[in-house]
Amino acid sequence: MTATIHNCTTLHNGVAMPWLGLGVFKVEEGEELVQAIRSAIRHGYRSIDTAAIYGNEASVGQGIREALAESGLSREQLFVTSKVWTADMGYEETLAAYDASLAKLGLDYLDLYLIHWPVAGKINDTWRAMEKLYRDGRVKAIGVSNFQVHHLEALMETAEIKPAVNQVEFHPLLTQAELRAFSKSHGIQLEAWSPLMQGMLLDHPELRDIAEAHGKSVAQIILRWDLQHGVVAIPKSTKAHRIAENAAVFDFELSVEDMRLIDALNENRRVGPDPDNFDF
């Protein structure tokens, strides 16, 4: 489906979004994160995903600046995502949160800004602010994270601009078939956080068997499965060899049978909070 790490999906507004990016959840501010971003960009990554609540936007920005300086790439060649946190939702609050994220990152704009969680009663005002940021040309695309079908349906009843992306927990034990189908039918790009189930799937016997048959790692098999389902993936790693390994998923293809076997592993099992039952 995709030939190199530079291949992109086209969002419904025409913006190009890389199929593979680097996630930085639970990576603290500091030199390790700066070096991880430099390593990722060196290995061909062009997409970096962070969030206000991760508390690491300053180091992400530093890593981006250093990577651009050493690579000769321009800012426009990168795709940077951040997210508005639950405590900062609301119309004015979201506009302020966006400015705060840009200031920490040291960037003039984001490529993608997401509502991090579907907080009841705050979604519509927050989305109006996102629409303003988009209309004002301050962000290239807007979307949501952790939205179920019913959250999307409710949002789209009042939204003037539909979300371009929905970033959700997605991995072989949580295959989100209904959400995938809904997203596809509405032109919303699905994106996987924790695609490797925070490392919990790396010893899975069926996945190991498929990996051995292809001469690949389990992580590479899972990321390839994401891509063949048309799902953008943002695996997290700070280790250069893992960052490189995760990028090497464009030189092979899973068979129909491989895909069927992996789909059949679904248990509707989450490692993160339930979007219908969280308290933050």
Q: Strands, helices and their partners?
A:
Elements: E1 8-10, E2 16-18, E3 22-23, H1 31-42, E4 47-49, H2 57-71, E5 79-84, H3 91-105, E6 110-115, H4 123-135, E7 139-145, H5 149-158, E8 165-169, H6 177-185, E9 189-193, H7 205-214, H8 218-228, E10 232-233, H9 240-247, H10 256-263
Parallel strand pairs: 3-4, 4-5, 5-6, 6-7, 7-8, 8-9, 9-10
Antiparallel strand pairs: 1-2
What characteristic shape results from the CA principal axes?
globular
Nearest-integer average pLDDT: 97
CATH architecture: Alpha-Beta Barrel
CATH topology: TIM Barrel
Question: Helix count?
Answer: 10
Using the coordinates above, name the CATH class: Alpha Beta
User: Radius of gyration over alpha carbons?
Assistant: 18 Å
Largest sheet: 8 strands, parallel
Poorly predicted runs are none
How many structural units, i.e. domains?
1
Beta strand %: 15-25%
Domain NADP-dependent oxidoreductase: 21-267
Pfam families: Aldo_ket_red
InterPro entries: AKR, AKR5G, Aldo/ket_reductase_CS, NAD(P)_OxRdtase_dom_sf, NADP_OxRdtase_dom
Protein name: Aldo/keto reductase
